[in-house]
Write a structure and sequence with these properties.
The protein is an alpha/beta fold and 347 residues long. It has one domain: TIM Barrel, CATH 3.20.20. The protein has 13 helices and twelve strands. The strands form three sheets. It has an eight-stranded parallel β-sheet with strand order 4-11-10-9-8-7-6-5. It has a two-stranded antiparallel ribbon with strand order 1-12. Helix 1 runs antiparallel to helix 13, helix 4 runs parallel beside helix 5 and helix 12 crosses helix 13. The chain is globular, with a radius of gyration of 19 Å.
């Protein structure tokens, strides 16, 4: 599967305003544009004469076994890409034995998505409506079997997404944010209105959620070493380097460039994840060599969902897994849990 060709097929299928919602970034879209090329700051230094006739992509994420260090990042409104929405994404991820992170702003409820497959899932959290309602969402996620809570920390306000503004983007008919309070986030809402009750998090919230349920807390949206350390000090079990798909601060440092600083700060204390511009197995291998435990993808899975539903999602993840396996073999790496830092050099 050619991910770029898949992107083109999805663009041809989706209404323009929906495509622009998925594909667009914030402001000048500089961060979005740099996200993929940023991984090319590094070059691989292949090791020869190692036995890589058989490679293992299996790993664990906060103790959960998965077949590959590639997961589905949280993304809103899958129902605009396919009628089955997040339930199809969940089935596709489970078929690839990959972890899926389900968004608060999903078009299917957290319970529906949990029941759609036996695959491992984490729940991504925004504050919606009130602290009490948000706490109840967290408890519901724990009861439904989600294995971690991903607190997105980079959305104090909604980024200026100029494509959405130009398109007067609103939620299409029959599209509802299923985890929002009844009557909020329904058809005709703007995303800003649907999230207007959201408030930004503080480090105190990390401590609060770490004690609310047994789910470990992952903080997503970390781009600085000092913030990463404060998250760990507040009780985070993992930190996630992310620019929110280039949809928030712009121009911001690319995830691939921020990752080494965060790993240096906290990588010996907690697991570190990354997303942003990951499009091929060599990107994943680079992330692992830089110290990430796993890399996550969003847009490629949305394009797969739009074109082929659950099977499209599975094929995207399968393509990335196959590409990673080839890159590992060519570089003399037999296990994703043991990728040496000296596999890389700067371009």
């Amino acid at each position: 599967m050619d991910v770029d060709a898949l992107h083109d097929r999805a663009r041809a299928l989706l209404p323009r305003e929906v495509y622009d919602y998925y594909a667009g970034g914030a402001e000048s879209e500089t961060t979005l544009a740099e996200s993929t090329s940023a991984w090319l700051r590094w070059r691989l230094r292949p090791r020869i004469l190692r036995d890589a006739s058989s490679v293992s992509t299996a790993t664990t994420l906060l103790g959960t076994p998965v077949a590959l260090p590639i997961g589905v990042a949280p993304w809103a409104l899958h129902g605009m890409a396919h009628p089955d929405g997040e339930t199809a994404t969940a089935r596709g991820a489970a078929a690839a034995d990959a972890l899926m992170v389900v968004s608060t702003t999903a078009t299917r409820s957290l319970g529906e998505v949990a029941a759609a497959s036996d695959g491992p899932k984490w729940f991504q959290l925004y504050r919606v409506h009130s602290p009490a309602y948000t706490d109840e969402l967290v408890r519901r996620a724990a009861q439904a079997g989600y294995r971690a809570l991903v607190v997105t920390a980079d959305l104090a306000v909604l980024g200026r997404r100029l494509r959405d503004a130009a398109n007067d983007f609103v939620l299409p008919p029959r599209i509802t944010m299923a985890n929002h309070p009844r009557g909020e986030g329904g058809p005709g809402s703007t995303l800003g209105a649907a999230l207007e009750t959201m408030a930004s998090w503080t480090f105190d919230d990390i401590e609060h959620f770490a004690g609310l349920t047994d789910m470990p807390v992952v903080v997503k949206g970390v781009l600085r070493a000092d913030d990463a350390q404060r998250c760990v000090d507040a009780g985070a079990s993992a930190v996630w380097v992310s620019t929110h798909g280039g949809r928030q601060a712009d121009p911001a440092i690319a995830s691939a460039h921020a990752l080494p600083e965060v790993v240096d700060a906290v990588g010996n204390q907690v697991e570190v994840y990354v997303d942003g511009g990951v499009r091929r197995g060599s990107d994943v291998l680079t992330a692992l060599a830089l110290g990430a435990r796993a890399a996550f993808v969003a847009r490629p899975t949305i394009w797969g969902l739009a074109v082929g539903g659950a099977e499209g999602v599975r094929e995207v993840l399968g393509e990335l897994a196959g590409s990673l396996s080839v890159a590992m073999a060519l570089c003399g790496v037999s296990d994703v849990t043991d990728v040496p830092a000296d596999l890389l050099t700067t371009a």
